[in-house]
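User: I'm writing a tutorial on reading structure tokens. Could you give me a worked example: one chain, its sequence, then its tokens, then a sentence or two explaining what the tokens reveal?
Assistant: Sure. Here is the example chain.
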Amino acid sequence: MANIAVTKKALTYLLGVCVPSTKQNAAKIRVRQLQFDQHLLMYFNKYEFFYASDPEKRCKTGDTVLIQNLPEKLTRVITHKVIDVIYPLGDITDPITGKKVVGSNYRDTIDEDSSLFGELKSKYNYDKAPKRGRMANKRDFTERETYMKYTDDPEHSDPYAINPS
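And here are its predicted structure tokens:
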């Protein structure tokens, strides 16, 4: 009787940022990992890129997403799937307090400071701001399909092209 070897593969979750991709029904995710240098005794950023299956096209360029590896590869390059969009681009929430963040300050403290020192007419109002997607094809071109550009022509610069080098 033949022994059947059963291999278990652990499902791992990774947090990364969506970058432009040319694959259909897939998102290219940049995951940051810290690599320790023995000589300097310091950690340095190391980036790895994964292709994750995203048939619903939930994530856009710049979104922070949670991905999970698949038990079997879908294709030669697609090894993960998108689980959830954690932070849409420009809308960051502190995971501990649950408050919205702008830069390194909470929105609440910005509002308190502006009420103490007087509000400016040029202050951005986050409560009245529309959700992301209103400026699609006007100023937000993340919906456009990207393609690989193999030549550099300074007269014809296309923002939707990805330079492979």
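What the tokens reveal: The radius of gyration is 21 Å. Strands lie at 13-19, 26-37, 42-53, 64-69, 78-87, 92-93, 100-102, 105-106, 147-148, 161-162.
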